[in-house]
């Protein structure tokens, strides 16, 4: 077992495949574990559910970030088409890297909720809609973007996690981590103000334990020493 499980955050590894009524059990976190409403343990068995956007290779895009994206949760026919395959795989969660908050997601979210499938929604967007790896900042504009997405998805009962960042911190840019923690702090404060119990996560790039362990510990800790989770992530995802 990897030593990263010593942290309070739960690791979920993702494999890439290219007004509401509660129809699905509420999931909560206690310590390092997730629980169903009946008190039984909940385990994420999920896939990344999004078609690759257009990638323009350049010296400024060494990570291969897409310049556009297709929101899979705004395609009702595709969601209905894919559902039987997801069920055959035994999937109980899907991760979506980017969503368009101006589109309608009712049909897809209902389809997945009725099938007992949760969603993990990344709040960042390609290019300028995320924390920059090279010149990081956490701004009110970026927070407003995140909140807009949260507001759009707040009516759905099967949002399990909001990710505040995806591979923003790499082994030689650990100075980015405080900005990710600031994003987690503000998103958690907003969710609390809305009486939302949705979890807050971060998806890390794979790497050595000497990099991942300190990062997971830092993002999941309370810097004040008050044993509060107001600035800590709930889920530490590992892209593998």
Describe the structure.
By secondary structure, the protein is of the alpha/beta class. The chain has helices spanning 76-89, 106-114, 140-153, 177-193, 209-220; strands at 10-17, 28-30, 33-35, 41-42, 46-49, 93-96, 118-122, 159-166, 199-205, 235-239. A seven-stranded parallel β-barrel has the order 1-5-6-7-8-9-10, surrounded by four helices. Strands 2-3-4 form a three-stranded antiparallel beta sheet, with no helix packed on it. Residues 1-21 have low confidence and may be disordered.
Helix content: 25-40%
Tell me how many strands there are. Answer: 10
Low-confidence stretches: 1-21
**Largest sheet, described in full?**
7 strands, parallel, barrel
Report the span from N to C terminus.
16 Å
Strand order of the largest sheet: 1-5-6-7-8-9-10
Strand content: 15-25%
Shape: globular
Structural class: alpha/beta
- Could you spell the SSE succession in H and E letters? EEEEEHEHEHEHEHE
Mean pLDDT value: 87
Number of helices: 5
Work out the radius of gyration.
17 Å
Fold blueprint:
Layout: E1 10-17, E2 28-30, E3 33-35, E4 41-42, E5 46-49, H1 76-89, E6 93-96, H2 106-114, E7 118-122, H3 140-153, E8 159-166, H4 177-193, E9 199-205, H5 209-220, E10 235-239
Parallel strand pairs: 1-5, 1-10, 5-6, 6-7, 7-8, 8-9, 9-10
Antiparallel strand pairs: 2-3, 3-4
Helix pairs in contact: 1-2, 3-4
């Amino acid at each position: 077992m990897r030593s990263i499980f010593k942290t309070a955050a739960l690791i979920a590894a993702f494999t890439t495949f290219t007004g509401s009524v509660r129809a699905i059990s509420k999931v909560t976190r206690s310590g390092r574990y997730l629980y169903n409403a009946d008190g039984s343990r909940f385990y994420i068995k999920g896939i990344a559910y999004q078609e690759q956007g257009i990638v323009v290779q350049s010296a400024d895009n060494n990570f291969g970030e897409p310049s556009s994206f297709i929101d899979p949760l705004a395609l009702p026919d595709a969601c209905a088409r894919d559902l039987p395959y997801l069920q055959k795989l035994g999937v109980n969660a899907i991760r979506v890297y980017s969503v368009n908050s101006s589109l309608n997601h009712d049909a897809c979210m209902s389809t997945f909720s009725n099938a007992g499938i949760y969603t993990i929604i990344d709040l960042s967007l390609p290019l300028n809609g995320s924390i920059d790896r090279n010149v990081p900042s956490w701004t009110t504009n970026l927070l407003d973007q995140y909140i807009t997405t949260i507001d759009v998805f707040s009516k759905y009962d099967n949002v399990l996690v909001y990710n505040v960042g995806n591979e923003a911190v790499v082994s030689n840019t650990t100075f980015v981590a405080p900005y990710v923690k600031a994003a987690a702090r503000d998103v958690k404060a907003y969710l609390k103000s809305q009486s939302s119990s949705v979890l807050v996560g971060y998806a890390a790039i794979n790497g050595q334990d000497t990099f991942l362990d300190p990062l997971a510990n830092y993002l999941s800790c309370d810097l004040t020493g008050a044993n509060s989770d107001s600035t800590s992530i709930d889920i530490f995802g590992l892209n593998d």
